[in-house]
Write a structure and sequence with these properties.
alpha/beta, 13 helices, 9 strands, about 45% helix
């Protein structure tokens, strides 16, 4: 059942009874050297460019698709890669990514295999950041400490767990940073300024602003509202702001790039893969990513 990111953040749901419990005592996060994500955003800012962050579901449409698709996305202009960890009850995702998760699980995808794919990608690319996006249950099943250590060994740069509420994620964020991994957090249109303040102490890398209420792939973009919300986030958080949900083409990518630091596109890419014959998977994704890259460049005022 898809209940939406805003509802998840508001309700404070957690996918496991064994989830992190924050006692209320202050947790001091370790200071880590500049990460691959931080370095990427710093370099883009120096060049007057904005980031393109495409999302694909690991193991979809086939197990053997993922590695070539990651490489194709980089070749087509991706600055950061978001790799979805499939889960049987992806509450924040719309029908497109739900179907992709179901197919990936049916293909035999697991969290351990996702990490192996990142490791294989990292063997040929030590520059492009990889962010894992998913849900708490697979992490809990592996064990938080074991996951953080394995993710670091594989070359993961950031982790976004959709259903760890902020109030219960502090220890997990500290564990990630101890392993030189940026904890990435979502902010919704319903998030209050006090939530921005809370994030200031634990988030790193970038924050991901959900541009529409509801699940992935849904809603109509209100660009004026997005611009106002991004400005409000920046007034409190000293981190790049990525905006995702509802971005489908060069035009919408350009308008988001004009106000945000990064443009995140997921459902549209997964849709392209859903319809693509096996022989056309990489060529179709390459064409779409190149179109989105042109939009991001136009929106950031950079034509190169």
């Amino acid at each position: 059942m898809a209940i939406g990111v805003c509802e998840l953040l508001s309700a404070g749901l957690v996918a496991s009874a064994n989830g992190v419990r924050h006692t209320g005592a202050p947790i001091r996060l370790p200071v880590i050297a500049m990460s691959r994500i931080q370095h990427t955003f710093a370099a883009l800012k120096a060049q007057g460019r904005k980031a393109l962050i495409p999302y694909i579901t690991a193991g979809f449409p086939r197990l053997e698709s993922t590695l070539p698709l990651l490489r194709t996305l980089v070749e087509s202009g991706a600055d950061v890669l978001e790799l979805g960890v499939p889960f049987s009850d992806p509450m924040a995702d719309g029908p497109t990514i739900q179907r992709a998760s179901e197919k990936a699980l049916a293909n035999g995808m697991t969290l351990a295999k996702v990490l192996a794919m990142v490791s294989a990608f990292r063997a040929g690319n030590d520059k492009t950041p990889v962010v894992l996006m998913g849900y708490a249950n697979p992490v809990e099943a592996m064990g938080r400490e074991a996951f953080a250590q394995a993710a670091r060994a594989a070359g993961v740069d950031g982790v976004l767990v959709v259903d760890y509420p902020l109030e219960e994620a502090r220890e997990f964020a500290a564990l990630l940073q101890e392993n030189a991994i940026d904890p990435i957090f979502l902010l919704a249109p319903t998030s209050k300024p006090e939530r921005f303040q809370q994030l200031a102490g634990i988030a790193s890398g970038y924050v991901y602003y959900v541009s529409v209420k509801g699940v992935t792939g849904s809603g109509t973009l209100d660009f004026d509202e997005i611009a106002a919300r991004v400005a409000a986030i920046r007034a409190v958080l000293p981190l790049p702001v990525g905006v995702g949900f509802g971005i489908r083409d060069a035009g919408s990518a350009a308008r988001i790039a004009a106000v945000a630091d990064a443009v995140v596109v997921g459902s549209r890419i997964v849709e392209e893969l859903e319809d693509a014959p096996v022989a056309e998977e990489t060529t179709r994704v390459a064409a779409l990513a190149a179109e989105l890259r042109r939009g991001v460049q136009a929106g950031s005022g950079n034509k190169g």
